[in-house]
């Protein structure tokens, strides 16, 4: 059987050798040719042309716009165009990467004599190259369109700013002037015709929705929308509240989550109800362009009013005072409660009328009248709210109760709102109607932004405290994973909470400036992303995927460093022949190098290129030159101490009159424990640059016990000498070599001074042994009747 297999192998080898060159070439070509892959996603030239035409149309529309509302509508369309361009660009990127990977597999054209193999590879490469060039050109075109659209957004903002400045600074009729109220009693003929045209379009839409056979469906949709807004909102609020109560841990997180749940229930139910209303109105006949613009603005206005009522209901929480987040007394909350609903209802009605005059192009007198009425009503409602709150607080103070925890921010809010109301009313009186409208709108928008981000900040902070709480399972798991204690866990919680609140505050400030009444959540997200996701962040290549990878790298790296350091300190280093000081130095050096490596790996995981960090290096060099040079000097000195080891942990040193044991050598400074057990922090550079006495260097240092005693002139010197020498030589801690010795130090009229010196095994025992010797010498002197010399009396 073995011979048969052997013969078959020989035959196969012979056939392989004798195979003609064309067969070998064909087989090699089939092997080198890449397998067919999934088709690459591409977009047609007609789509690109359509995007270009849409952008050109928007540019023409912006150039012809003459009102603030028209520019706002154009801005929404440009933002939608940018989102569409980004979606198409994202869909092309995987195909570009796939084609590039296939071209990398094929490589350059081989210099091979086999023309058939070269031809097959060249054909495949040319095909892939053409596809990749097509996608590259499409991506370049999309990028150019996006840049042009972004420039158009900037131009729209500039034009809107100019129009707003012109309108705000324009003085018209005062509300005290009868001409201001003339549109209410005598509407101009042209304006009546425009309003009639709008009413006719509304009647057409109404008749289409209420035509025979459709009335039942339309009525059902309207009733369903009403039920969802009223009953559905209550049921959703109760359901979310039940989830928060039974699923959230006890404490502040449950309270803040209940407030957030209330807002979510209000917004979601309102959104569903609005969609049902829109479907009921356009189910049979779509809106005309005029009605479409009006409906789009009214939808934004409805969401604004819903946010006013939802946020006020969640923060005041009059039905459940224990759920209330701000420190507001119950009477004050009850006094505030009706005003947000009144404000939202009046805004919904009045601004709708004003917007109807805007979209129909009514005269400036009618538009200014509507703006003035809205500004007047909003200012009066907010002013009444402030007066009611002030009156309630004064009544509580008179009654001896504490109305609320008044803080600086709360006081500033009251003052700011009061000043804004007074200024807006004064502007209406002197004829600056648009300025008054702008101030009142900004007051409402500031309330929405402040209330929303206050709620989000509280939820985020409470989430961090619950997540990192040592009493919660997550906190226990983090402690076990990282091997840290409660203080370090609290520090991590503080860092995460502070960073998150800072980011939310930054986004809130951006929302204040880029938004206003009628701004949707999508517009806020787009505008914020455009500001935060600028060219700098794009160069740094910071994306969510990189952020998650960097976070995991940091957490796992810290855990590994701490685990390895505990293993070094507890198992490996104690089993070596190194002294404890050397072990501590090696452990600290390993930790410093490890943490530096983790920082580098984290930056690498973020996708940050070192060439993009040149500005950081430049700023750091300037900082080192001015303020960080001491820190850098101490850091380098710490590395020298850990490597050259002129001193080490456990040494007894003396520097600048300070003597103590080295307990720890940190990156910046060294901890020295003094005789009274206190710790003195000495910069590492002082240990390198100043004269330092290392008492225990080398491990063979001996302590010196020196006593100086003064005796009267009439004593027997030999007797005293023998007594002192016997006290030293008989003490068990005094070394025989070197032997103790006595010297005659001084001779004065007051007496003679004798100095006796002895050596002990360690400098650390000098103090205790000196005390024992003094007790023994005084005892022997007293037994021998020898007294010490008395100091001369002071004059």
UniProtKB/TrEMBL annotation:
Membrane topology listed for this record: Multi-pass membrane protein
Domain Mechanosensitive ion channel MscS C-terminal: from-to ranges: 710-788
Keywords: Cell membrane, Membrane, Signal, Transmembrane, Transmembrane helix
Mechanosensitive ion channel MscS domain residues: 631-696
Signal peptide residue numbers: 1-25
Gene Ontology CC annotations of this record: plasma membrane
Cellular localization per UniProt: Cell membrane
Family matches, as Pfam families: DUF3772 (PF12607), MS_channel_2nd (PF00924), MS_channel_3rd (PF21082)
Keyword Manganese: no
Boundaries of every DUF3772 domain copy: 140-201
GO molecular function terms listed in the Swiss-Prot or TrEMBL record: mechanosensitive monoatomic ion channel activity
Gene3D superfamilies per the UniProt record, alphabetical: 1.10.287.1260, 2.30.30.60, 3.30.70.100
TM ranges: 257-281, 368-389, 410-432, 438-456, 502-526, 546-564, 584-607, 613-632
SUPFAM superfamilies the record matches: Mechanosensitive channel protein MscS (YggB), C-terminal domain (SSF82689), Mechanosensitive channel protein MscS (YggB), transmembrane region (SSF82861), Sm-like ribonucleoproteins (SSF50182)
Entries under PANTHER family matching the protein: MINICONDUCTANCE MECHANOSENSITIVE CHANNEL MSCM, POTASSIUM CHANNEL RELATED
Protein family (similarity comment): Belongs to the MscS (TC 1.A.23) family.
Protein name, entry field: Mechanosensitive ion channel protein
